[in-house]
Amino acid sequence: MLKFPEPGDLVRVWRDGLILEGIVMPNTEFSSENILIIKLSNGYNVGVDLSKSRVEVIKERAYEVGKIPEPTTTSVRGSGEGKLKFISTGGTIASRVEYETGAVKPAINAEELIEMVPEYLEGFSTIEVLELYRLLSEDLTPSHWERISEEIFRSFESGADTVVVAHGTDTMGYTAAALAFSLQKLPAPVMLVGAQRSSDRPSTDSVINLKACAVIGKEAPFGEVVVVMHGSSSDSYVLAHRGVKVRKMHSSRRDAFQSINDVPLARVDFPSKKFVLINKKFIKRHTKEELTHLGKFSNKAALIKFYPNLDCSLIDYLIDRGMKGLVLEGTGLGHVRNACTPTISRAVGEGAIVVMTTQTLFGRVNMKVYTTGRKLIKAGVLPASDILPETAYVKLSWLLGNYPSDDAEELKQKFLTNYVNEFNPSHDEVHFPRWYHGG
Amino acid sequence: MLKFPEPGDLVRVWRDGLILEGIVMPNTEFSSENILIIKLSNGYNVGVDLSKSRVEVIKERAYEVGKIPEPTTTSVRGSGEGKLKFISTGGTIASRVEYETGAVKPAINAEELIEMVPEYLEGFSTIEVLELYRLLSEDLTPSHWERISEEIFRSFESGADTVVVAHGTDTMGYTAAALAFSLQKLPAPVMLVGAQRSSDRPSTDSVINLKACAVIGKEAPFGEVVVVMHGSSSDSYVLAHRGVKVRKMHSSRRDAFQSINDVPLARVDFPSKKFVLINKKFIKRHTKEELTHLGKFSNKAALIKFYPNLDCSLIDYLIDRGMKGLVLEGTGLGHVRNACTPTISRAVGEGAIVVMTTQTLFGRVNMKVYTTGRKLIKAGVLPASDILPETAYVKLSWLLGNYPSDDAEELKQKFLTNYVNEFNPSHDEVHFPRWYHGG
Fold first, then answer.
1. B430–A364 C-beta distance less than 8 A
2. Which candidate from A256, A337, A360 shows the least CB-CB separation from B248?
3. What three-state secondary structure class fits A247?
4. A285 in the same domain as A308
5. Which one of A342, A388, B31, B204 is CB 3.0 to 4.6 Å from B27, fit for a cystine?
6. What confidence score (pLDDT) does residue B1 get?
């Protein structure tokens, strides 16, 4: 095997005297390392054991998996009320369709969506699916956030009542924060939904996550950007987490998404589909006319996680690369080594805004307690309370994108403004999860 | 106020017609921003409200707070059995003494230790206190890990039966991992202990954490490096977490330290002081003769946390700075944006070892599922299973320090070796904490 076969490649396989030709399909979760799924010309998929077969790539990228020439919109009519706009950006949730249909068709269209979730037909009068991207979420950048945000804004303008965004789970928290900042005073929840198990597996979580979206879209009193994902490892309930307070906390569990320094906004129980409001502190729905769209994101923000002996010159490097905003993910109450104070001072001196978050994730920064923190404040670092490091990064990118001419002091004021509950002023016991400490 | 008064400065204060002179004391947790504690020449401490007083720095650094000219050893004899070696590196746990005695005396000595924990007198025949550093833990570097490790090794050589290391909590997890790798086949648990509340406060957690060390030192069947800290927000029990599997998960709670992808090794209940073994899978105590010491740490390791739009040239920059080991803290199952693959390939090509961990912290990396991961493996990235990013960083520093002439392939093999349970091959339900999802 000269070239490692990748999805989209046309390959020839020799096995037990048999020769097969087909297109390599994207791997699904829990595929074995040694099994290659190929789609034959007759449409069937077969698994090829690489340890027992010879495989040769005949043509690289015979099909452009993951690339879409043009965003496509499809729609179907339902018997219910209201218009659902479903925007697909890619990720595992869209992989069933991609997997089943091969690499030539769009990953998802309206017909396929209602096949997965027939309830949508009863729930809405129109189900409109926009396949915007077919991206792995780790490849999304601020420019994608801009486009997704714009499409949502347009959707509401053109009559959508409920908006769902299908998204890879890896960076879903980042995108959720981006949408939360860029689209405020929402007329309805904007729901990011994904799957931790690909949709062609019996154990997929995508279907009930999608069902929960219909319930939340109809019943939630809030107009916030939320991540709608499993709340337990069974199918018993789905949670709506506040987009600026949620984090992927497990690499593979279905209930990987959890709220940090906050509680989820709501829960949808299954099979009853009962909507339960958990968080009484929410931003209510606004009218469509009130919706604001401030949708630019800058490439000039960066995040540095501190660790012992961090090379402080990294900060210089980023400033020299033109960065205007820097999130430090410090230790404990918001510290980095004292040796970094001069480079941080220089960054601030050159007009960059530097904010401090904590790698403990839970709790809040308090830089007035120890000398290190006080020195950092003196150097111009902004303590960022209990905001997640990831949300702080997105917020800086958003502020720098929309207020490029603001000076650092103005940006600091804006950074400290609590736009969409990204800061939670009061923590209590339920905000820290319970850990196993023996029977 | 021309110069902001810092601990150690001699200041003059004008207030209500009164003039006071004294040394600025280190702040304690929850000190108000506007209150300066100064020690008068008569030994009393007074709080000065900065908003109502005029303060002038007469002499900067009149006392060198936090600096120790020479490590000092003090000891007292007890009525029990065995020798306790107590090594102080600084941090909040040593702050009571520093605070009470001002800046002229060592932060802690044997007399002061047994004043805090009189039980040590009954528990040991000798209590020897080495004040090695008076450092804020964010300032510790690999060279400090080397020294602490060496002192522990020497302590066991010179007859210590129990070793306790007092340490700031900010980077305690990193140091714990460093000691775990450098000191293997331990004859007794090596216990890192700290405080989240300074020792001069009634709510301090340091006393029962220190008491728990005596119990664990006597009763634990394991010879591992552990972090000994509160298990709850009350004083009901203290946990011993495996040093390579523990993380500070809250900026201020007393039970901030929690085991990730593992369960704590043991619990000490209070007030009964009952020792409860929680984790049946542990490394047993060895004889003192079996103890191995491999105590070098390299400065040529680095950690990069990935986020959307990460500037991939950071990797080039670190390699150009001479880094030989790189921990990536990727998303989900172990991904970074595809745009970074070429720079990662280059790093590997130049002989660096690049390992992948996950920013979800819980769960393990699996890079065989999605294309991104497969490409990264092909580029030479080593999937690092369920190791914590912080532990992976320390492990790379340790491997590069002790095996500087190994090539990347040999280092990869060593990296994948499970030395001290830094990899946990089996996860189950209790490894993921329980979150609040409504009543």
1. no
2. A360
3. strand
4. no
5. B31
6. 42
What's the pLDDT tens digit per position in A371-426? 889 999 999 999 999 999 999 999 999 999 999 999 999 999 999 999 999 999 99
pLDDT at A54 over 70: yes
pLDDT digits (tens, 9 = 90+) for A59-117: 776 655 445 457 889 999 999 999 999 999 987 777 543 444 443 344 678 998 998 89
Total length of chain A? 439
Answer whether residue B422 is part of any domain.
no
Does a structural domain hold residue B3? no
Distance from C-alpha of A145 to C-alpha of A138, rounded to nearest angstrom: 12
Is residue B73 part of the annotated active site? The answer reads no
Q: Which residues of A touch B93 (CB under 8 A)?
A: none
Residues in chain B: 439
ipTM reported for the complex, 2 dp: 0.86
At A430, phi and psi to the nearest 5? -70, -10
Q: Do both B272 and B393 map to the same domain? A: no
Q: Tokens at residue A191, please?
A: 């729901």
Which of B360, B362, B394 is the best mutation test for A, with the most CBs of A within 10 A? B360
Give residue A382's domain range: 301-416
| Cα atoms in the 13 Å half-sphere on the side-chain side of B233 | 9
**Residue pLDDT, tens place only, A291-317:** 999 999 999 999 999 999 999 999 999
The answer to whether position A35 is within a domain reads yes
Q: Are residues B48 and B77 in the same domain?
A: no
**What's the alpha-carbon Rg for chain B, to the nearest Å?**
23
- In chain B, residues with a C-beta closer than 8 Å to the C-beta of A334 are 251
Catalytic residue among B83, B85, B211, B248: B248
Cβ contact B274:B268 at 8 Å = yes
> For chain A, what percent of residues have pLDDT higher than 70?
90
Check pLDDT > 80 for residue B94.
Answer: no
User: Do residues A217 and A93 share a domain?
Assistant: yes
Whether residue B287 sits in one domain with residue B306? no
Q: Is A173 exposed, middle or buried (0-12, 13-18, 19+ CB in 10 A)?
A: buried
Which residues of A form the catalytic set? 92, 169-170, 248
User: How far is C-alpha A135 from the chain's CA centre?
Assistant: 12
CATH code for the domain in which residue B229 is found: 3.40.50.1170
First vs last Cα of chain A: how many Å apart? 52
Q: What local confidence, expressed as pLDDT, does residue B31 receive?
A: 53
* Amino acid A52: pLDDT: 81
Q: Minimal CA–CA distance to B276: which of A436, A116, A57?
A: A436
Tokens encoding B155: 């302590």
* Cross-chain residue pair B139–A337, CB shorter than 8 Å: yes
Average pLDDT over residues B131-137: 89
Token couple for B234: 């009350």
Are B115 and B247 within one domain? yes
**Contact status, residue B417 vs residue B402, Cβ threshold 8 Å:** no
Q: Which of A139, A236, A307 to mutate to test the interface with B (most CBs of B within 10 A)?
A: A307
Which CATH number do you get for residue A17? Answer: 2.30.30.520
Q: Does B224 lie in the same domain as B321?
A: no
pLDDT in tens, B287-327: 999 999 999 999 999 999 999 999 999 999 999 999 999 99
**Torsion angle, alpha carbons of A11, A15, A17, A18, to 10:** -50
pLDDT of residue A281: 97
Cβ distance of B138 and A338 shorter than 8 Å: yes
Mean pLDDT of A120-136: 93
Q: Where residue A346 sits, what CATH number does that domain have?
A: 3.40.50.40
| Backbone angle region of B177, left / alpha / beta, with phi > 0 → left and psi within -120 to 50 → alpha | alpha
- Same domain? For A336 and A284 the reply is no
Task: Closest CB to B250: pick one of A232, A309, A432.
Answer: A432
Chain B residues inside the 8 Å CB shell of A335: 136, 138, 170
**B397-414 tens-digit pLDDT:** 999 999 999 999 999 999
As for how many domains chain B has, the answer is 3
